Amino acid sequence: MLDNKLISKKKPAFPISKELEEYLTKNGRYTKIPIHYDDLLRFQGSVPILDKNDKDTLWLSTYFADYEREEIDLNLKKIYTILHADGSDAPLPYLTVDSIDFCTFGNTKPFRIKIRNILNDNYTYFYLKKADASRVYGLELEHLLSPNHISFLVNTDTLIEEHISGIPGDVFIENNLENCSIQDKKALSKEFVKFNERCFVRLLSDMRSYNYVIVLTHDFDRIQYRIRPIDFDQQSFEGNSKVYKPQFLKENYALVEMSLELLQPGSIEQYKNEERSLLAKRAISSQYRLKHLLNCMKVDTVSIPEKVEQLKLELYDLTHDVNFKKSNNMGDILNSALDFIIRNYRTENPYIID
Asked: pLDDT of 1-39, one tens digit each?
């Protein structure tokens, strides 16, 4: 297990570059919005939010001056319609803002907005965060290369994200894992192996158990599990290649131990190969959009030179692919990683038509 000291505690926020802004605009991610992150920082006071065991959640319930709250609520409801619908004002009379919570933990210090439909009491959340290029790249790569689609919007210094539903990994490990059946544990072990491989190939690091959620889907004869990251701040930033593998993080030890106990080495290798093949297929199917994104990343700064040098040499030692050694930045390294799995997929698949 890795020492958490090897993971950067305070990663710098990187601005949205002109090239990335052009990419986001072309793909419908960059849009006008009626309220920005800094506007919500004007809250007048706050109250700590405690969980059911009276433990501090690190979230604060905020309140605003009466003369500001009406306008803020209206603009937040408009953002909801932009994110989830066509941006029209028609649904606004049926929506209300139940809460505006502020998180004191993390790089982006998000606001969590709870929107409720007053006709049926259904509610959902979305987040306003300080825009960070690393997180934007991470969100877009998750959208393109994983089985999960993500809705998010950007404007200047503000990032708007949809809520990703699921049981936080640390909560699931502590409260649910022990009660799972053997078959469910095997299914979750398979998903953890695939999740581990997906994070490594696409260079998403710091997937400690509180940075992902576990999603349960009830099929007609079983429960299916999916692990979804919710923190993308550490996209292509770290230099230590092991940090990109959740298996080496001590918070995930219970899942690692379970997987090694329940899965045969041959099965683990099979699931890793399956995930690499799926990643290659997704990369090929979205090749033009992905190439545009990687071209933005190649001329952008999302890490520091020392970490770039360390990572490219470690990946070269692992793969013996000279393209890693020639890489000049994190965009080059990620491009080399994806190119590596695509070449292997084409070589090993006798049925593919070039």
From this structure: 776 666 766 789 999 999 999 999 999 999 999 999 999
Structure tokens at 311: 């990572």
With a CB cutoff of 8 Å and minimum separation 6, the contacts of 141 are 202, 204, 235, 293
Which residues does 104 contact at the CB level (< 8 Å), separation at least 6?
Answer: 58, 59, 60
The CA distance from 310 to 318, in Å, is 12
Residue type, 45: G
Residues 208 and 249 sit within 8 Å (Cβ to Cβ): yes
CA atoms lying within 13 Å on the CB side of residue 70: 2
Question: At a CB cut-off of 8 Å and minimum separation 6, what does 177 contact?
Answer: 185, 188, 254, 255, 258
Across-strand partners of 124? Answer: 115
CB atoms within 10 A of CB 119: 9
Hey, what are 175's tokens? 């409260």
pTM above 0.90, yes or no: yes
Give the position of tokens 């994070």.
199
End-to-end CA distance of the chain: 41
- Do residues 72 and 65 make contact, with C-beta atoms less than 8 angstroms apart? no
DSSP 108-135: S--EEEEEEETTT--EEEEEEEE--HHH
Side chain identity at 219, as an amino acid letter? D
Q: Determine which helix (DSSP H) or strand (DSSP E) holds 193, and give its type and residue range.
A: helix 182-201
Separation between Cα atoms, residue 69 and residue 63, nearest integer Å: 8
pLDDT (tens digit per residue) in 96-127: 999 999 998 777 789 999 999 999 999 999 99
240: amino acid identity, one letter: N
In sequence order, the 6+-apart residues with CB closer than 8 A to the CB of 240 are 2, 6, 310, 311, 314
Crossing angle of helices 287-298 and 330-348, rounded to 10°? 150
